[in-house]
Design goal:
Number of domains: 1
Order of helices and strands: EEEHEHEHEHHEHEHEEEEEEHHH
CATH topology: TIM Barrel
CATH superfamily: Aldolase class I
CATH class: Alpha Beta
Bound molecules: S-adenosylmethionine
Helix content: 25-40%
Structural class: alpha/beta
Shape: globular
Largest sheet: 12 strands, mixed
Number of helices: 10
Number of strands: 14
Length: 323
C-alpha cells in the first residue's frame, strides 16, 4: 500500500523527533531557559516508535530520520537504531545531530545500523559558535565530523542556518570545506519560528544571496538532485571540489509541491507539516491497542492534513517537532 495525499504527493519519509531535550540552546531555536517540557510518560517509548516505523513501512515509507531536540542525548539511542534497522523494508536510517557527542558515539551508531548523518554547524569560529549555541564547544563538533569521515559514512551533510550579520561572513569558508572533504555543506534559510527564537526577521538571507556570496570567488556547477536524501535542497559543486553544496530555500522558494514527508513528534503527534497543517494524536491511538486498520487510518488522516503550501512563518515548537 502507498500513501498519497489529497494533492497527489506520495508520502515516503518519516522524520522522528525522539526527545525534546537538547544539550545546546541555539539562539534561533530555543529560549535560554524556561522551556516547558513534556513529562517523561508522555514521550513515546522506543517500542512505540518501532511500532510506528513497522507500520509506516507497510504504507510504503522507507526512509526515516531521527531528530530532536538532540537525538544523541536520549539514553540508548543506539538501541532504537538497532530496533529500527531490523525492521524489514527500512531502507534509509539517518540522524540529524548537533555533533557534540559524535566523536565518542559515531562508531556505536554505525555498528547499530545508522546509514547517514546531518550535522548542524553554524560557525567555524570558536567564540561565535559558543555565542550562537549558548555554550557549545566548536572542537567537539569538528572532532565529530572528522570521526564520521574516518568511519567512512557517506552522504554526510553539514547544516548551516544562514543568518545575516551572524555567519554570512563565513559562507565562503563553509563552502570551501567541500574542496577536500566528501561532505555536503547545506545552507538553510533562516525561518523566524516563534517569539522565543532569534527575534528579528532581518536575519533572513534568501538562497539567491547566499549563492551570490559564494560565487564571487568560486565557480559553481549546478548538479541534478541525488536520489538518496535529496530532500528539499538544490545542489551545486565548486568546480573541482570533492563534496557538494546544498541550498534549502524553505522560505524564498517553498518546495511544498514535492514534500514527501510526515513528522512524528517526541510526544507522539503525527504531524503533517513543519510549519502549518494539522496533526493526529498517534500516542493516544498507540496506547489503546490499535488494529492495523486504525493505524493506517491515522497515517492517511495525517497525510490529508498536509497543506498544499505551508503558511509561511509558523509558530513551531522546534524542540518537539524537530527540524
Ligand atoms: N539537535 C539536532 C541538530 O542540532 O541538528 C536536531 C534538531 S535541530 C531542531 C534540526 C535542524 O533544525 C538543525 O539543522 C537546525 O539548524 C534547524 N533549525 C532549527 N531552528 C531553525 C530555524 N529557525 N531556521 C532554520 N533552521 C532551523
Amino acid at each position: 500500500m502507498k500513501i498519497v495525499d489529497k494533492y497527489f504527493r506520495r508520502i515516503n519519509r518519516l522524520r522522528i523527533s525522539v526527545t525534546e531535550l537538547c544539550n545546546l540552546r541555539c539562539i534561533y531555536c530555543r529560549p535560554e531557559n524556561g522551556l516547558a517540557l513534556s513529562e517523561h510518560k508522555d514521550i513515546l517509548t522506543y517500542e512505540e516508535i518501532a511500532t510506528v516505523v513497522q507500520h509506516a513501512v507497510m504504507l510504503g515509507i522507507k526512509s526515516f530520520r531521527l531528530t530532536g531536540g538532540e537525538p544523541l542525548v536520549r539514553r540508548g539511542i543506539e538501541n532504537l537504531l538497532c530496533m529500527l534497522g531490523k525492521i524489514q523494508g527500512v531502507e534509509d536510517l539517518a540522524i540529524t545531530t548537533n555533533g557534540i557527542y559524535l566523536k565518542n558515539y559515531a562508531k556505536l551508531l554505525k555498528e547499530n545500523g545508522l546509514v547517514r548523518l546531518n550535522i548542524s554547524l553554524d560557525s567555524l569560529e570558536e567564540t561565535k559558535f559558543e555565542r550562537v549555541t549558548r555554550g557549545g564547544k566548536l572542537k567537539d563538533v569538528l572532532d565529530g565530523i572528522e570521526e564520521v569521515l574516518t568511519l567512512g559514512f557517506k552522504n554526510t551533510k553539514i547544516n548551516v542556518v544562514a543568518m545575516k550579520g551572524i555567519n554570512d561572513d563565513e559562507f565562503e569558508e563553509f563552502a570551501r570545506l567541500t574542496l577536500e572533504r566528501d561532505l555536503e555543506v547545506r545552507f538553510i534559510e533562516y525561518m523566524a519560528m516563534n517569539k522565543e527564537s532569534l527575534a528579528s526577521e532581518d536575519k533572513f538571507i534568501p538562497m539567491s544571496d547566499i549563492i551570490d556570496i559564494i560565487e564571487r570567488n568560486n565557480d559553481l556547477i549546478a548538479l541534478p538532485p541525488p536520489m538518496l536524501g535529496s530532500g528539499a535542497a538544490k545542489v551545486y559543486k565548486i568546480k573541482g571540489a570533492m563534496g557538494t553544496l546544498g541550498f534549502v530555500s524553505a522560505v524564498s522558494q517553498p518546495f511544498c509541491g514535492s514534500c514527501n514527508r510526515l513528522r512524528l513528534t517526541s510526544d507522539g503527534k503525527l504531524r503533517s507539516c513543519l510549519l502549518s497543517g494539522g496533526e493526529v494524536d498517534l500516542k493516544a491511538i498507540l496506547r489503546n491497542n490499535p488494529t492495523e486498520e486504525i493505524l493506517t487510518d491515522a497515517f492517511i488522516r495525517a497525510a490529508n492534513l498536509k497543506p498544499s503550501v505551508h503558511a509561511g512563518k509558523g509558530h513551531v515548537v522546534m524542540h518537539q517537532v524537530g527540524g
